[in-house]
Amino acid sequence: MPERRGALTNTATDSASTSSLSVTEYLASATILTGAIFVLIYLLPPQILVLGGIVVSSTVAVYTLVFTFITFDKQLPRWLSSVPVWPVLFLPVLLCWLFVITFDITLPLFDVVLFAALVLSSCTYWAIVPTALYQHVAEQNRSTTVTEWPEITVLVPAYNEEGYVGPCIESFLAADYPSDKLNIVVVDDGSSDETYAEARAYETPVPADSEPSERRLEEARTALKKGDADGAVTVAAEALADGLDASADTADYQTVFRTLQTSVAESTTSDSSLDQMQAQYERAAFHQDGVTTQTAESFIATAERLLRAQHPTDQPAGCSVTVLQKENGGKYSALNHGLAHSTAELVVPVDADSIIAPDALKELVLTYESNPGASAVAGNVKVRNTGSLVTNVQALEYVIGINTFRRALDQLGLVQVVPGCLGMFERERITDLGGYSGDTITEDFDLTLSILKDGGEIRHSSNARVETEVPDTWADLYKQRVRWFRGNAQTVRKHWNIFTDTGFGSLHMVMTPYFVCSMVLVPILSFVVLGGVAWMVLTGSLVKFLALLSLFVFLQSLFSALAVLIEDADLSLVWYAPLTVFGYKQFLDVLLVKGMLDVIRGSKFSWTHAQRVKQRESSEPSD
């Protein structure tokens, strides 16, 4: 893995850090947690309280042992690492069963389900929230300074992102990061709209003395669009020969390019980026039976970069923007295509609708440099288009269901997903794993698990903020979440060995129970509780139903308030907490089950694309 390039010191507090929680907010957090405990004691039957105490206490003991093992791996007996996590996690269930048998306790089936649901909720409140709060405090009090910022390449895969890719590029051009260390590579993945033209408007200007060669490269791109890959490479080789004043037989494009590479290398030995690019292209395969489309695309793009390196502009050095175009092959292929044209040791893949905060890149680097074992850093995703019921409830979901959990898992270096909206990876780590995979439709989750299995740590930077647009209709939300849940199921199936192989250490001990709870137990309990509630209403137990609903809503509202305080989000989002208990929760659970069943049954499905707001507005007929 690459060495840390930025020199770290502990003499100055990071200037980009945001303010920490106030004393009042800390007191409010403690009061909320304490109040929740007393509410549970007052409202719940004694039997459930006792059983809940057993489960929570034993769960805390088990996870304390797990965290101790992770923290002091070399100081504990070696045999502990070979103990599967499943028998340990069933210890609380065994203790409860023994307690019920010993004291001859009889509980209705619905009370047992209610007990299980409350235990899962309680474990969330007393484990995730305090851990997330600790991460917040630690990050805000971080005192580190980077004296030399590393080079970064931003990868922007774009498919039909007209109206979005431009503002995305602008947000990176306005970033508070050394412009000579920042390169942006946009990959148009065969868009049918004006995405390519919109991105090209931001491309680094072509030097005046290379304009004829640039026109020849446009001819090469046109030939490639018409399916003539061999002709496209030949034209590109001629453009290189003209632009670099090199003589070679242009009929033999392989000889031409390698001759030009030697010529360029002799005059640019100090340009490490160009050297890396040449070495990278040397590994590209030419096929004896003809040039593939991908090889031709790579040839043209590399030729363009060689020309621009040899003909610098009179403008001061700054951020470089390169726009590539390829046939549609999916997001993973677009990312791999951009990766093949990057040279920086750190890459930042982003969705084309992402708008980053000015300090986001520096915050990613600070988190990376502060954690020597980190292979990737996840950004903090915020919803940009709030203002309606469907978008506001998603904004709350991002706070309590995504960012809070990532904060907690950051403490173990086990952040489960580096989001496509914003994240940073070691380029070498990705290439060593074979690049992005097309095995699943959630390439970000797939790559994250691959890195964790390979021994890398995944960290979370709460200060590296990015705004994204979420679906603003229930139909588009349905399409997005079905894709997510199908992809999650595909990824878990692909990496199933983390459930059985104790050699994966903390990934096995922590993440597999998390996946089982979130993807299996929680939806099942949710449906059973919903069925019990319906039975209460039908049998006239309206008071018990209202009391039960009030209890869950109260607990979820407390959890939401804490998470919003930690995230410094809009406190008015807490008003939507009841929907995360009843309504929106069941909507997501149904889609989760559908996605899992689609994968289990082997159903054929394609990428379900949610329509962008601007695109829908532009397609609507004007009055």
Description:
- This protein is of the alpha/beta class and 623 residues long.
- The chain has a domain at 18-141 and 495-582.
- It has helices spanning 23-43, 46-71, 85-89, 91-103, 109-140, 165-173, 195-200, 211-225, 229-244, 253-267, 272-282, 293-310, 331-340, 360-370, 389-410, 427-432, 443-453, 474-494, 506-538, 542-567, 584-600, 613-619, and strands at residues 8-9, 145-146, 152-158, 182-189, 320-326, 346-349, 355-356, 374-383, 423-426, 457-468.
- Strands 5-4-3-6-9-8-10-7 form an 8-stranded mixed beta sheet, sandwiched between helices. Strands 1-2 form a two-stranded antiparallel sheet.
- α5 crosses α19 (506-538), α5 packs parallel to α20 (542-567) and α15 packs across α20.
- The longest helix is centred in the last third of the chain and has 33 residues, at 506-538.
- It starts with 7 loop residues before the first strand and ends with a helix.
Brief write-up:
By secondary structure, the chain is an alpha/beta fold. 56% of the residues lie in helices and 9% in strands. It has an eight-stranded mixed sheet, sandwiched between helices. A two-stranded antiparallel ribbon has the order 1-2.
